[in-house]
Amino acid sequence: MTYKHDKNRTPNEFHAIRLLRSGSVRYHLTNLSTSVERLVRCQKRATDVQ
To answer: Which segments of 1-50 does DSSP mark as H helices, in order?
Structure first.
């Protein structure tokens, strides 16, 4: 299965596929969730300012 020729995929999807192929999915998932939490906090702060 190669995804290189599928132009509908976003870079994030490519990245996710690469991560799934490598064994370190759990590590990256925890990283992702912490960065998402950080993003949510930043957005809340921005809406509070407005």
So the answer is: 11-21, 25-49
Cβ pair 14, 21 in contact under 8 A:
no
Tokens of 3: 């995804």
CA–CA gap between residue 5 and residue 50 (Å, rounded): 43
Give the type of residue at 19. Answer: L
Give residue-wise pLDDT tens across range 21-38.
776 667 767 777 888 888
CA-to-CA distance for 9 and 1, rounded, in angstroms?
14
Name residue 16's amino acid.
A
Would you say the pTM of this structure is higher than 0.70? no
